[in-house]
Predict the structure.
Amino acid sequence: MAAAIEIESLDKSFTLHLRGGTELKVLSGLSLAVERGECLALQGPSGTGKSTILRCIYGNYRPDRGHVRVRGGGDTVDVAFAEPREILALRRSTLGYVSQFLRVVPRVPAIDLVMERAQESGVEPDMARARAAAILERLHIPHALWSLPPATFSGGEQQRINVARGLVAEQPILLLDEPTASLDSDNRAAVVDLVREAKARGATVVGVFHDREVRDAVADRVLVLDKAEAA
Amino acid sequence: MTEPLLRVRGLDKSFGRVTACRAVSLDLWPGEVLGIVGESGSGKTTLLRCLAGELEPTAGSVEFRAAEGPFEDVHRMGEARRRYLMRTQWGIVHQNPRDGLRMRVSAGGNVGERLMAAGERHYGRIRAEAVSWLDRVELDPGRIDELPALFSGGMQQRLQIARILVSRPRIVYLDEPTGGLDVSIQARLLDLLRRLVRDLALAVVIVTHDLGVARLLTDRLMVMRRGEVVEEGLTDQVLDDPRHAYSQLLVSSVIGA
Amino acid sequence: MSTHARLPAQSFNFAYLDEQTKKMIRRAILKAVAIPGHQVPFASREMPLPYGWGTGGIQVTAAILGTDDVLKVIDQGADDTTNAVNIRRLFAKTAGVRTTTHTAEATVIQTRHRIPELPLKDGQILVFQVPIPEPLRWLEPKESETLKLHALEDYGLMHVHLYEDIATHGRIARSYDYPILVHDRYLSSPSPIPKFDNPKLDRSPALLLFGAGREKRIYAIPPYTRVKSLDFDDHPFSVQRWDRACALCGARDSFLDEVLIDDRGNRMFVCSDSDYCEGRRGTAAPEAAE
């Protein structure tokens, strides 16, 4: 069975024009493959490009060189060269992403924010709402908060909304960037359960897990990045 | 769908010796939201007006494809056809609502105009459609007979949107839709726009200097500086991984971009 | 009643205008007839009365009058108002044509703000005095834009206006100068005639000519042309009706004027069309004041 994600000879650097054109090389010649249904944890000191790899898979960062092949349903898309429309379609159908920032339209209730992600990937509104409710329940978000915009939530609550948005659509590939940051142990456990369920569904997961316990609980394989892999 | 909805190639627009837009090319697809960002004077509003048929470019072409048919050059077609398309297939929401509304005509009359221009002659049906669209843009249908001046700025924006949507257009052009609005009103408008885009499968081109609005609303972004497009791509890509020096400057200057 | 022809005044050309001017106006009239309802610009001349007193209608009449014509002039339906009297006198003096107050006898009828009650016949010409020929003027002040709207048959704006009427008043409130669509093409103003008269425009056997002197436009509705008053399917065009008859002649089908008869508010309703009323009463009216 072909790999779900195939990265080939990936180079990524940033040219900081505001700092006189300094070049920051983050990834150099990186190649890796993630099998379908596998959970790969990216590990290493900061600056080694863990987030960068996730963002390159998601199409958020554009590589300088190399290929990022993603296999969702049947087709393969090379995210490094795809048209914006293709990447958007891929995100809707295939790629779920839990980021470290919750950037949402203000004043939209939390449950609607979660629901929308499911709707974007084609789920009917009623079903989307049900799923959103279920996942918020799992993440211990009190009912009282569901109808409120998350701008006034605590850091941990916002992070859980992020996780909910990333997982509600039950997509085949999940990219998790520090999903349990700022969460207490109960909520960490809830996230672990959700990731395990996703895996049980056959999802492929690539994640950055700061917390060793979480990493051990979900990862099938660990890729250690060090300065040698990076520039 | 193998061809875009709108195809722009090599668009130039000058006013005498002042070049407002230079060599702009883009494709617009159904269901996508394209943002055009830049500072004042970057040419973005001029570009928008050329796309919407209001201004004629000095060079280049703006081609629109109606109902899976052939591409038609918006500025080289006959006036009758252009006016017909401008009031059925797309619309432009102006920065100043007074430019986009008939201030001496009631809300209902404003919303119903496109229907009447298209030949609808049943008062009851026109009114029912107007009520339905006012409701859709979250305006109180009970205010259907009020003049636009009695509505707040944010409501006037929504009235403009309703006025355009009534003809079920393919494209909506928005010129700084949140400029001059209170932050909480901006939020409501953004949310409405997102839902309309999703529910109606519209293509939207939104000109804004507000990168926060661009991030939340647009799928793709074009960065303009002094009439030229300096960078374009997926919105989150342009904002998180800007490559051009000007884009980097723009992003770094804005709080919460 | 009619007066005999008199010799034209010595210092004026026949019917006041010079022949070159009449040619110019006739050309405009021909164009107007060829494109029913379309406003044709013409070089309106200085006339012996100010703008607003019928200079357009007078110029059209002057251009079409011939020695054998019989002229009737009415103002709000009456032959004996100052305006009607003076215009009739002008043409009697300068053209020496027969004048009349009887609709049936006239070949050319110049009118301000009414159409005679008696149906017109093939061969008659009705000349309307028009203040503002552009029906869209109050909705779109720019002439350059209204020209385009007419050229593109883009009349949604007028329907918006009618919509507003219904929204405000529950019905279309326009009761005069009611917009019409001529020959299924051009939106026109029928001049400030009451909407009561609009049905008379539709497929009239007569030639209908419209002259606006200040605005310098002429337009026409040729005989037997379809004229439709604008409306909505569920708010169809309808005319005014009175629940009483003319106090003088008993007519129930004519346009009635309301006349105050004393200082205590007593009023009576009489036919606006004085010739029609007299005809029904069978009385010979006194000589129209000269």
About this structure: Chain A has a mean pLDDT of 90. The beta strands of chain A are 5-16, 22-34, 39-43, 65-71, 76-78, 95-98, 173-177, 204-208, 221-224. The first strand of chain A starts at residue 5 and ends at 16. The two ends of chain A are 32 Å apart (CA to CA).
